[in-house]
């Protein structure tokens, strides 16, 4: 008989099992990361420096704007930290990479399609550790030890719509640094028929470098790097293929979140290009992000606390 699962137990589980996949420079802090291509410099101003445009907003709208501004600022800081980590990262351990290589079958109708690889936590769903938040569903997670816990899961706005839409034009993979038992429970809930998520990869498929789980796209032996896009709230997750990455905002509980809508629009455009890296690197500039960020911060265009950037 399994014990009655408790939310606190779920929280403990995640604390012990997911920390190594977190932010490299602030392992205990939680950061949120919006998509850079939604950039709007007005969002970077400090709270309280509201513009005349803002003064005409209702109180509710102002709160919404402030919340989004905070998420946006946290995103920039998180991405900065992630990319600073990437700069120092050692080349991948080839032995480890070779051991992770997999050949994945092509579905009928998807033989020539490009591949979109979604992260799971804080990209498509969030495990609501805060018991004040109403989860979309509570899922039992069965571990090989025989232990069962219940995980309260919140599904990100537009997640299902996005997966359905994207799976019409792309092969869809979910690649998570979380444990398989947890991920499968969530993915079975999102896609019980296995129609919109074609393949699943988990923590055991990540390479573990400098204390971080990294999703190296070279593990997919029979896919071309130029045809793969990876969407992840942590930029360091795709450290070895920065040009393939979309650093989407981390999602926790922002009910007005529309990042996946923006993503659908962007992916629609990307489906036509020959090498997705060429377009993607122009949009996100992740290779030069740290230098540009430093330059702009020095010019005082962006206002951040210095300790956030260490
Ligand atoms: Mg994530």
From TrEMBL:
PROSITE patterns: FCP1. Gene3D superfamilies: HAD superfamily/HAD-like (3.40.50.1000). GO terms for molecular function: phosphatase activity. Residues 109-270 form the FCP1 homology domain. Pfam families: NIF. It comes from the Eukaryota. Residues 1-27 are annotated as: Disordered. This is FCP1 homology domain-containing protein. It comes from Stentor coeruleus.
